[in-house]
Amino acid sequence: MSGFKLKKRKQVATAFDVNVTPMLDLFSVLIIFLLATSVFSATGETRIEVPFLSSQPPPKQEDIDKNPEKTVNLTIDTSSVKYQQATTASSVPVDEFEVPLTEDALDKVQARIYAIRKENPKFDKVTIFTQQEVNYEKLVLVLDAVRELRPGRTPIPFPADYKFPSGVDASNLVTKIVLGNVIFAD
Amino acid sequence: MAGVDVGRKESFSLNLYPMLDVFSILIVFLLMNFSVSGESTEASANLELPVSAVKLSLDSAASVSITKTEILLQGGLKIPLTADAKDVVEAYKKDGQGAIRKAYDEFKRLKAQNDTLKNRQKNLGLSNADVSTLVLEADKVIPYRIIKRVLASAQQAEFISWKFAVQKRDVN
Q1: How far is A6 from chain B (nearest CA, A)?
Q2: Distance in angstroms (rounded) separating the CA atoms of residues A82 and A100
Q3: What does each C-alpha distance from B159 to A46, A121, B69 come to in angstroms?
Q4: What is the pTM for the complete model shown?
Q5: Are A146 and A109 in contact (CB under 8 A)?
Q6: Of A129, B13, B75, B105, which is least packed with CB atoms within 10 Å of its CB?
Q7: Vertex A62: Cα angle to A57 and A65 (nearest 5)
Q8: Average pLDDT over residues B141-168
Q9: Chain B residue with minimum CA distance to A183
Q10: Contact A108, A99 (CB under 8 A)
């Protein structure tokens, strides 16, 4: 190894460091923008129908008598809700009770409708008659009791061929809520 | 000056990578939940929606607002509610069918617009958007006698399907 001197190359340590600060700035601006403009939709909706006068002839009484369907009517006044269950064949109630207009008391109404749906999964409509001085908040309380299942009650599947109206699904107790006394003078 | 290390430099570098990770996750989360299409009712002292257990978010549609002081229709029509809502009740008595004349006329105009839109969509072979449903935003203290007049006015203009706006109890 004489005369040949291995020159040790000087090692240059080059550390590549990405400057993340501008990226962090950008992310901060983006987060603020997203937080400020996002709509965390806190507004919900509940579907309601209003009866419509039809020019079609009503079904024959014989047909109704042969296959009567259950009907549930709720009458809301400022302090209570009256539950009336009858059939399409006869308007005479077969089950009737009144509960105070409170969230807890309305559980009895939901329990009764739940039992009807369990017996007949096709049952899908409740008609509500609201008195003049009942306010919107109280009306919504009843709509909730009729449509939104409370904890402990599992959704009852609708028949396979059931056509869901828009805005409701299988998790709802009933799909059609009709405000019965809109078109009549009082 | 023995023992004093004059030439030694210490550089403090903040490790920003964990912060970057957190920000990235936050941005992904926000982008996934980002929505500008969801309807949000204008916060107003005169329009406080009742709280409900509903899970469905409010979808856009032509809306009618009933505040403590007036009825506001999508087209810009305002019907003032006097202290005892006399205007609305008187209108009802005159019509005899529960409708508020001014509101009925506005709903009729909206109905004609919707029909034109539906025909155009049909001619273009597009799927029909649901324009026959209206949104009702009412203050929680509004009595049903006023809500009923609005519903009746719309019903006579062939609007029978409604979305009642509420404040969700559980915001998801």
Answers
A1: 32
A2: 9
A3: 16, 29, 24
A4: 0.75
A5: yes
A6: B13
A7: 110
A8: 89
A9: B152
A10: yes
- What tokens appear for A183 in the block? 């078109």
For residue A83, the one-letter residue type is Y
**What residue numbers bound the domain in which A96 lies?**
61-179
Inter-chain touch B160–A49, beta carbons under 8 Å: yes
Is A11 among the domain residues? no
Does any domain span residue A120? Answer: yes
ipTM surpasses 0.85: no
> Is A12 within the bounds of a domain?
no
CA angle A81, A178, B115 (to 5 degrees): 155
| Tokens representing residue A45 in the block | 């909706």
Q: Is residue A138 part of a domain?
A: yes
Indicate which CATH number applies to the domain containing A175.
Answer: 3.30.420.270
The predicted structure's pLDDT at residue A1? 46
pLDDT tens digits, B59-92: 778 889 998 888 888 767 888 886 555 556 555 5
Show me where the domains of chain B are located.
51-168
Q: Which of A35, A46, A49 sits opposite B30 (nearest CB)?
A: A35
Total domains, chain A: 1
| Best CA proximity match to A167, nearest among B110, B165, B34 | B165
Q: Which two tokens stand for residue B18?
A: 């964990």
